Amino acid sequence: MLDQPIAQIRELRVEFQTKDGPVVGVEDVSFEVRPGETVCIVGESGSGKSVSSLSLMRLVEFGGGEIAGGQLIFDRTDGTELDLAKTDQDLMKQIRGNEIGMIFQEPMTALNPVFTVGRQLTEGLRIHKDMSKSQAEARALELLKQVRIPEPERRLKQYPHELSGGMRQRVVIAMAMACEPRLLIADEPTTALDVTIQAEILALMDRLKRETGTAVMFITHDMAVVAQMADRVVVMYRGNKVEEGTVTEIFENPQHDYTKALLAAVPKLGEMRGKSAPEPMKLLGVEGQKIAPIPGTEEVLLSVRNLTTRFPVKGGILRRTISNVHAVEDVSFTLNRGQTLSLVGESGCGKSSAGRSILRLIEPMAGEISLDGVDIMKLDQKGLCKARLDMQMIFQDPFASLNPQMQLVDQVAEPMRNYGVASGSELQDRVAQLFDKVHLPRSFMRRFPHEMSGGQRQRIAIARALALNPKLIIADEAVSALDVSVQAQVLNLMMELQSELGLSYLFISHDMAVVERVSHHVGVMYLGRIVELGPRARVFENPQHPYTQALMKAVPIADPNQRKSEKDLNFKPIPSPIHPIGYEPAPSEYREVEPGHFILTTDSGY
């Protein structure tokens, strides 16, 4: 039978044992995956979508879970059916990697740091396919070519830490595809990647699926990726399946309230056309929303001129500086009071380095930074400390930027204590007001960071950044690690605070749809330079630089009727930003294409 499902999950129930008794991770979930089709499983963190895939691989036991009920029927290569829930681990070893491949969410932890890429790719082939060393190496090379890794011969001898995130993820895909499994499980394989690399990897998985007839179970919380990839969609919420249907049914006629809310929370590229100023999103089920545009003012708060930051690369026996990484190269822009300027670009384009250089968390090599009339570059340590009252930062990973041993009340109060802004009962009142501002209950003040979800931790980071009433907040990928619905709430919160307190944001991101939603002005960065800069409407509706046009093309759209094909994506490999000592790049020169809209005329390498 051709349409016989490859995997059927029937009434699966998974429990985790905790001190307070069993916790149900997945409750009564059933769906199936057929040959050559992609089933996307969607939901927020904690909805049980990864638990169901780990159960199918029987890896959930290693994470403290147990399959408490249900069947996992798998149709093997030889035509026999097997209930994986009752299979012993020895037989599972033969099935894992050989008949079911898995791509994990975090490529750095999925690869072994002490073995070369070649060794890790050939291991499965030699165990499952009884290949000789040379046969396995030839197949490994072929796999790397299939996933379009440049210079594949060299990569086989390299270690995982020598590859970028996107490259590592391709190696993980190649490993999962090595033995040509019947079923491929992909757990959020593109969450941490840039738009351009994500677009390439999605197109690659789609092509491999068509060529090999593999069935794909794709787990994600990104609705635009679902629209791009899925044939059928399963929506999960709190361990239960709440809706299932074809991709068109789910997007055009969602039935369950949760699915409707999920779709409403996705910022869509092009939603802001014809609007002069950013405005918060309309979310379903949230009462009392103030949806008003945020015009900001025309008064300049921050002005950056010719900012250049380079990092030395040391080598040789004497550890001398042999070359420099040109992270930020001759960047200039201004940011008005009460407005948002976004810097967009791929990983490694220098946007985070630019943000940190402005706060002098890393020392720039040259340039002028003026914040509200204060020359930041001329300040000594004491003066800089005082200037930081006016400028604060929200980091990308809220868990890493909070102290795990301090209660939240102390973390938010700490900046005010350090600067002697408030003390005693006044301090407690200020902290309580900040919790109200970021919409967190005051009962959370005695909690620790590990007791909060990702979105709640990010709110604490925002409250802490607001504690000193700064004029400028630099938000470095502040929402990139959050679920769609949480991301929408945090973005709305940031915009509400902007209109209420007149804050200016320097918003660093690689998500074009989010940037379109929040920005007044946009700067597109590539290899350390701003290649295009202008009002949001102009940059998005009339992109002039070839790199900006390529970026716009790569953004997946949350509409199954507007899928991208691989031929739409023609990215050039990014040249190296490392140059020998004594190399002096040409200064950045711009041409004004429309009033206030500039593009770089110096050769940017794209």
Automatic annotation (TrEMBL):
<keyword id="KW-0813">Transport</keyword>
<dbReference type="InterPro" id="IPR003439">
    <property type="entry name" value="ABC_transporter-like_ATP-bd"/>
</dbReference>
<dbReference type="GO" id="GO:0005524">
    <property type="term" value="F:ATP binding"/>
</dbReference>
<dbReference type="GO" id="GO:0005886">
    <property type="term" value="C:plasma membrane"/>
</dbReference>
<comment type="similarity">
    <text>Belongs to the ABC transporter superfamily.</text>
</comment>
<dbReference type="GO" id="GO:0016887">
    <property type="term" value="F:ATP hydrolysis activity"/>
</dbReference>
<dbReference type="InterPro" id="IPR013563">
    <property type="entry name" value="Oligopep_ABC_C"/>
</dbReference>
<dbReference type="InterPro" id="IPR027417">
    <property type="entry name" value="P-loop_NTPase"/>
</dbReference>
<dbReference type="Pfam" id="PF08352">
    <property type="entry name" value="oligo_HPY"/>
</dbReference>
<keyword id="KW-0067">ATP-binding</keyword>
<keyword id="KW-1003">Cell membrane</keyword>
<keyword id="KW-0472">Membrane</keyword>
<protein>
    <submittedName>
        <fullName>Glutathione import ATP-binding protein GsiA</fullName>
        <ecNumber>3.6.3.-</ecNumber>
    </submittedName>
</protein>
<feature type="domain" description="ABC transporter">
    <location>
        <begin position="302"/>
        <end position="552"/>
    </location>
</feature>
<keyword id="KW-0547">Nucleotide-binding</keyword>
<dbReference type="Pfam" id="PF00005">
    <property type="entry name" value="ABC_tran"/>
</dbReference>
<dbReference type="InterPro" id="IPR050388">
    <property type="entry name" value="ABC_Ni/Peptide_Import"/>
</dbReference>
<dbReference type="InterPro" id="IPR003593">
    <property type="entry name" value="AAA+_ATPase"/>
</dbReference>
<dbReference type="InterPro" id="IPR017871">
    <property type="entry name" value="ABC_transporter-like_CS"/>
</dbReference>
<dbReference type="GO" id="GO:0015833">
    <property type="term" value="P:peptide transport"/>
</dbReference>
<feature type="domain" description="ABC transporter">
    <location>
        <begin position="9"/>
        <end position="263"/>
    </location>
</feature>
<keyword id="KW-0378">Hydrolase</keyword>
<dbReference type="GO" id="GO:0055085">
    <property type="term" value="P:transmembrane transport"/>
</dbReference>
